[in-house]
From TrEMBL:
Listed name of the protein: Nuclear transport factor 2 family protein
Species the sequence originates in: Bradyrhizobium frederickii
UniProt-listed Pfam families: SnoaL_2 (PF12680)
InterPro entries given in the database record: NTF2-like_dom_sf, SnoaL-like
Record-annotated SnoaL-like domain positions: 7-100
Length: 106
């Protein structure tokens, strides 16, 4: 699978449980929308990621990628401590200037 370097950096940081590397993949004002809640800015993204890891102990493995305009959708198998694990989720990234400007998970 051919993922852009910044998307590879996101999933690699997530797998390695490295919040600094994960936040570094986002623009300063980047956002994550997960479970219907928007987390905007570096501090909010870090807090969201740590809370999700603490709650679900999840690992996401990309299995498919598709692009549409300025969006890149990655389907990933997510395994963790949650009902229905493993689940396939869509990670829809918006990339701007080589950074993640937005991420929607659903």
């Amino acid at each position: 699978m051919n993922l852009p370097r910044i998307i590879e950096a996101f999933f690699d940081a997530d797998t390695r449980n490295d919040p600094d590397a994960l936040v570094a993949a986002f623009s300063r004002n980047g956002s994550v929308t997960d479970e219907g809640v928007v987390h905007q800015g570096s501090d909010a993204v870090r807090i969201w990621w740590r809370a999700a890891k603490d709650k679900y102990h999840h690992v996401a493995v990309p299995v498919e990628v598709a692009s549409a305009g300025d969006k890149l959708r990655v389907r990933a198998t997510v395994t963790g401590r949650f009902p229905g694990s493993p689940a396939v989720l869509n990670y829809t990234f918006t990339i701007a200037n080589g950074e993640i400007a937005g991420l929607e998970i659903g």
